[in-house]
Amino acid sequence: MGLFRFGRYFRIAPFDTTTPEGRIDERYRRAAWSTVTNLLSKGLAMAVILLGVHWTVSYLGAERFGIWMTIASFAAMLTFLDLGVGNALVNHVAERAARDDPAALETAISGGLGFLGLIGGAVTAVLALLAALLPWAGLIKVADPQLVEETRRAALLFAPLFGINLFAAGIQRVFWGLQRAFEGHAAAAIASVLAIAALWVAAHHRAGVTVLLAVTLGIQSLAAVPLLVLLIARRQISIRAMRSATRSEGGALFRAGSLFLVLQVGTMIGWGADSLIISGTLGAASVALYALTQRLFQFASQPLATVNAPLWGAYSDARARGDRQFIRQTLRRSMTLTFAVATAGVVLISLTSDWLLDRWTGGTVRVPQSFINVFAVLVILECCGNAFAMFLNGMQIVRPQVVVVVLFCALTLPVKILGVHQGGLTVIPLATVIVYASIHLFFYGWYFRRTLKSLLA
């Protein structure tokens, strides 16, 4: 797709969707605007991370900063606690929207968000209980015993913040399914601006881990408020009918989400548990090295995730309408561009990592180049895997993903736990690279090849 042709999709007026060509153009138009607003949103989210490190690492110190990063990483690690309903809601909403039945769409959205609200409340109660009872002194190694209590307070605050974010993320998923993700990203961008302002004030007053957690995780959940107002104004959700809709839609969403739940648990085990493994074996200071490297490479991975994310809803809509041509050409373009841009991005970051980290942290943190290089390879694989996952999710090809992720976790977790004692921090990304590449090439390149070909024919 040439640059000029791509530019035609940046128009306010929608294309005529009464023809197949118009529906293809409209999907690309919505994806284009979603990409731009997502880039803005993710850029501001990265600014929150970048400025957060720059403003706080010098006065927090390695251990307190590591505690903040460890608790904050729970937000990604525990996303499976929505029981897969958030991801199932994307396809559920997209299919209802394709029917052009406003009443059915309203029921789907009301029931889905009502169900997520119940889940969020239950999760908050469970996490708060765990935060109060868990032996944090044994879970996180710190030299100063007083930091254990600060960790507990931060975990207690995390519980309600995470419960709210489950519901907020569900609202974002609804807009993905409606192929109006650009509105969700615009709201998230505004929330990030507010978070940056609040973070500056908190850092100026040398705030502790609890306040920093509230500023970053808490304020960003406010993006859901204007989105909920939009759904109400468009009569796409009914607060009054939410209770009955939850009962009628909850069972179907739970069944559809059960496979996504397995995928989310696999992601938590295979990737999200890295900070806990490192903290429990090498100490909280090593978590800081891992977290900084991870965030450094997000400058390469996040823009690509931003570009590919709107394609989930587009694939789902194309599947519901039987548009194989759109699916084939979009998958080919997405995979090719993702590999090329990811490779260029990580090479540039790897070559300049020492300089970037020195400017970022004021020279207080040094990361071994060997760790940087292995992590770079991992980022390329993850970027391509994410692009492919958008296709699989939109096409509702979930069971093969479950097989792959279960085997990945079964193999990589023991290698990380045992290997980190002998090989140090570099073992964590190295184990992921070897196992991830081997399993994905085998299953998608051979075992599930016929299944994929039949859907693209």
Structural overview:
The structure is a single chain. By secondary structure, the protein is mainly alpha-helical. It has one domain (3-456). Helices cover 84% and strands 0% of the residues. The chain is built from 19 helices and no strands. The chain has helices at 3-7, 20-77, 85-98, 102-133, 136-139, 146-177, 181-204, 209-220, 224-233, 242-272, 274-281, 284-308, 311-321, 324-351, 353-361, 369-394, 399-423, 427-447, 449-456. The longest helix is centred in the first third of the chain and has 58 residues, at 20-77. 48% of the residues are buried.
In total, how many beta strands? 0
Order of helices and strands: HHHHHHHHHHHHHHHHHHH
Helix content: over 70%
Overall 3D form: globular
Largest sheet: none
Give the N-to-C terminal Cα separation: 21 Å
- The helix/strand class is mainly alpha
